[in-house]
Amino acid sequence: MSTLADRPENPVVGLPAAHESAALHVTGAAMYTDDLVGQMAGVLTAWPVQSTNAHAKVRIDVSGAYDVPGVVRVLTADDVPGLNDAGIRNDEPLFPSEAMFYGHALVWVLGETQEAARLGAERVQVEYEPLPSIVTVQDALDAGSFQGTPRTVLRGDAAVGLAASAHVFEGVTEFGGQEHFYLETHASLAIRDSEGQYFIQCSTQHPSETQELVAHVLGIHSNEVTVQCLRMGGGFGGKEMQPHGFAAIAALGAKLTGRPVRLRLNRTQDITMTGKRHPFHIAWKVGFSREGLLQALDAVLTCDGGWSIDLSEPVLGRALCHLDNSYWIPNVRAYGQIAKTNKQSNTAYRGFGGPQGVFLIEDILGRVAPLLGIDPIDLRHRNFYKPGQTTPYGQVVKDAERLETIWGQLSGEADVAARRAEIAEFNAGSPHVKRALSMTPIKFGISFNFAAFNQAGALVHVYKDGSILINHGGTEMGQGLHTKMLQVAATALGVELHQVRLAPTRTDKVPNTSATAASSGADLNGGAVKNACEQIRDRMAKVAGRLLGVDERDVRFGGGFVTALGAPVKRVSFAEVAQAAYLQRVQLFAAGYYRTEGLHWNPEIMQGSPFKYFAYGAAATEVEVDEFTGAYRVRRVDIVHDVGDSLSPMLDIGQIEGAYVQGVGWLTLEELRWDESDGPNRGRLQTQSASTYKLPSFSEMPEEFHVRLFENAREEGAVYGSKAVGEPPFMLAFSAREALRDAVAAFGPAGHSVELGSPATPEAVFWAVRAAQEAAVAAGAGTVDGRTLVATAGD
């Protein structure tokens, strides 16, 4: 029995708890990075000069900026004392001599006010010497423009498996990226103190990496830079890698001027300068047995990395490790490569390549089910992993039986069979509006693919009055991590939630932290917080034993009091024990540490066990599609999802709901478009605001939304038996896309395979409906525009 997973009696974890900053959020009192500017004087504002060419050598004259009143300094490459780079491969110059995408920041203007900085930037003169540009993935494929290291996942022999398959299909699956569109844009505030040290407030998911990169740019050591993340107004992966350069610009400005410098992107700057979810182009061939069982998959995955490598390699790696989703495929060959294009450098996004891998197999199953003559729900179910089977990269699928259990529970609770019969009856009498209900599963691996990131630290203080302060390496972006850590600490120390307070994340309290990403924030930091609390509790137990006159092994902590086993009436308060411990010179603070055990991964051959465990779930989504417009409604969603023994069920349900809706946004609404012409605006992002980039809103929320946490789901070896929640439920949204496919199919003949554009916008759905209707005409009879059409010989 793992002590990490064990819970004491009456734990604080597992109870519904409001987000620790909920009151501050809803009253507007919560402070974010840029809000702190109002608390200090003399702050300068940084403003970028952005490229208006997708790819060009540049010559820059900044002299005109100094003619603008209020302009203090223009930052250029000549000002950098250390390394002029913000990337992990030294491929992202902060001040480039070659513009690599439309919107690329070339130099930065510092002004007394935002307006002065903006007007100064307008006076900077840039001469462009245009170079050939690559805008689309297809452009990159045609030009052989790639970056990074390609990877291959192999199991069995895909060629032999395909040759032996009763049914073989091939095709191309393409899908777009996704803008993070966090409410708070990128923001940093840098201060240089009288000792020459730098304190940086930053909206970052990875403070330690921000610290490290700032030090590199300034040519100093990490111990001279402190980074604090108070909280973020959303991150979704977009603030894992890309805040570092902005923080470095602010720090450089503070160094050169001796004044605080803020850098906060406006919405258009943020969208045009920062990376997105990686779009993919995937060519595939798949084989099935006569019974509809997957036999072989051969695929070439090309992801659009943008102009630099950023996190594209691990994103591609996770995509390759998730293209099986929940299905056993005995023979697999999957080759992955990264395209280099003249667009923003694409980066982490919730799911981190997992959704792109899952997209492939779910698209394949949705497309071929009608051709096999098998119901798509049944086709998915019959291909589920069975206990003892392994993934294509060699990891045993632990708890595979949960897939079957969750699927059965969801099917029954959502009354899927009866509702599908009702839908069939409705569709038979409804020529212009069709409905469909689809189910999809998810199996998602939890841990960083890079083993070193699977560690965390924490610092816990108990004060003489019994109050507790915790600090850990994770960052809060609205997901509730801090709330969970408060619950973990309260449980481990046996106190009530109100006795524990949490300090902002900062690098001088907990060093060398990992990014809050990969859904691992609660696992890693929870393990570290629990470890620190248990060190303190064990010391306090000795003191309490003397106070109670019992052996320290019989001391129990709970509810803010300390009692003795077998004599619960006799008790002292936690505060009394803390005071006594201080007087007895017992240490009341501790540094906690946690590392994930049991991981093994060889990225060279893409084999091993990179994940601590798998999170499972399933969703059933019912939609309604209008023939004339392609518009759709999500009528009802039912979800059963596995979060182990939840640390905070109310937060977890909220995360599942939010992830599902964000996934629906990616799959059906959010369309990024660039100017692909050869004109002067080639490479310009055309969807630069919420007016042109469609985000999910209340109108896209399901009319009925039922979410339940999978029960009796304790995860051994994880903090208090819990599992991650951030990313896995994002992929439950595939049930919505597949429901749209099935609804479109209802306009066509039996056996018609629907190819649905991505995102499946109303426009894409409309054209898919038209294709289905034309297939019906070709098959014998159908309706288009309300007219009954009958095909004749020779049509």
From TrEMBL:
Aldehyde oxidase/xanthine dehydrogenase a/b hammerhead domain location: 27-132
Keywords on record: Oxidoreductase
InterPro entries on file: Ald_Oxase/Xan_DH_a/b, Ald_Oxase/Xan_DH_a/b_sf, Ald_Oxase/xanthine_DH-like, AldOxase/xan_DH_MoCoBD1, AldOxase/xan_DH_MoCoBD2, AldOxase/xan_DH_Mopterin-bd_sf, Xanthine_DH_Mopterin-bd_su
A GO term, aspect molecular function: xanthine dehydrogenase activity
Enzyme nomenclature, EC number: 1.17.1.4
Highest taxon in the source lineage: Bacteria
Signal peptide location: none
Top-level EC class: oxidoreductase
Oxidoreductase among keywords: yes
Any Pfam family matching the protein: MoCoBD_2
Name recorded for this polypeptide: Xanthine dehydrogenase molybdopterin binding subunit
Species the sequence originates in: Microbacterium capsulatum
Gene: xdhB
